[in-house]
Please model this.
Amino acid sequence: MSQNVENIVIVGGGSAGWMTAAYLSKALERNVQITLVESSNITTVGVGEATFSTIKVFFDFLGLQEHEWMPKCNATYKMAIKFVNWNAQKKHFYHPFQRYEVIDGFDISEWWLKMKRNQEAFDYACFLIPWLCDNQRSPRYLDGKVFDNKVQNLFSRDHIVKKNILDNLKVQYPYAYHFDANLLARFMKDYAMQRGVKQIVDDVVDVKLTEDGSIDSIKTKEHGSISSDLFVDCTGFRGLLINKALGEPFISFSESLLCDSAIAMQLPTDIKKNGINPYTTATALSSGWVWNIPLYGRSGTGYVYSSAFISPEEAEKEFREHLGDAFTNCKASHIKMRIGRNRNSWVKNCVAIGLSSGFVEPLESTGIFFIQHGIEELVSHFPKKSCNEELIRSYNRAIANCIDGVREFLTLHYCASDRADTEFWKATKHEIQVPEELREKLRLWKNRLPNNKSINPKYHGFESYSYSVMLLGLNYLPESSLPVLEHIADQNAKAAFLAIQEKANYLRSTLPSQYEYLNYVIKSQEQSEYLNENKIDSSLVSDWANQTTVPIS
Model:
């Protein structure tokens, strides 16, 4: 009898289930039967519509190019997160997908502290992307070229066939995506089933365990018992296999991250009139914050809040007041979020991926990232039937380190902010638990900005520039610039600041708008079929794209 895994059963669909099925169907090319069991009676959460720039690695691995999947998922480009009202002055700032330029051995942000601290906003002085966001630019020209010349080769057809993984990635892609999570799940489903994945639509009514505590089989309502060598739990916050059947404890992050609830809405949007913002917006309210994610034809929005400081009814009232009268009739969905992670995401022969593994509030768009990371690590640690304990421990360390690292980064968003005008915002300064390691780093960061040596060294998706950006935007600034800069001539820094402004002006005037670019791509991909399939009002689409199609890589 073969000791190799021959059968995998994924329980649960949605983004997590079908992304897992699609990836495994490509990674495990032979001798494995993958089956996905999902219920028709359970709706998916579907709030993870914004992503990291590293999602490109996922699509590249599957061999998918943007023009193949973006139109079918109402997808748009995301170059940054715009934080609004997160500081005492309630000024906005951008967290872009762009590293700092290095000038004479020091990040340009250090030079900003010395030369422009009281003259110009740090994000506009140090980056190109805020200027592109303000002007709703696309990150790509109509011929497919990316605005950032440093990574142009990474978007070529030759590069796409190379297999990369997250924690080995050395580059910073200049953009990510927004997409309709339900449409993405549908697209991944079609991809996976074309590669031989079997779908069973049924309800799981029981889970049978073996004597050693592993899962022997799941019992379904209509299809009876289904056995497997390896089970993947993608059942969301329920944790049907990992928590309910196997009893794995869940570690709450509530002492550090206070938000535990969300209200989500879908808003109609006139993209012809208003354009499409190439960024996610996170706007702070009295007891949390509101996300706004622009898609092609609508926007996804939601209020993430702490139920300890505001009731669901009060939260919805505040949320609707924030949105304005134009969206009075939009239906609100209330969601209770499970914030934290499992003690172990892999137990016996069961691996939890997605919400069933762990979740933090979607402040930095980490939901899809956690799914991608969990899948990649599963392939990296893929077992034999016996499920080697050392492999399991290694997997669990990687997942825990990643989620815990993101938890620390999100905690910084609150405790480093100088906003303290409501009970919630006061509590983020005085009542939340800040790990001593983070407190020590915060003391250091009052004297110099974060660098690669002073942030969490374990892989969690964020680089030192992200920490620096958040501290500067939240008004947690070093008291002075680095003393060593007083001993270095500043002409190179002056030239660098000037070059950023000149390049920003050039890109603003030459890049198409995101609406123009996406409309152009959609037109080249049989626009009428796309609009009918996704029920987008054709009156919202401009005639601008009625021209010769060019290949979009």
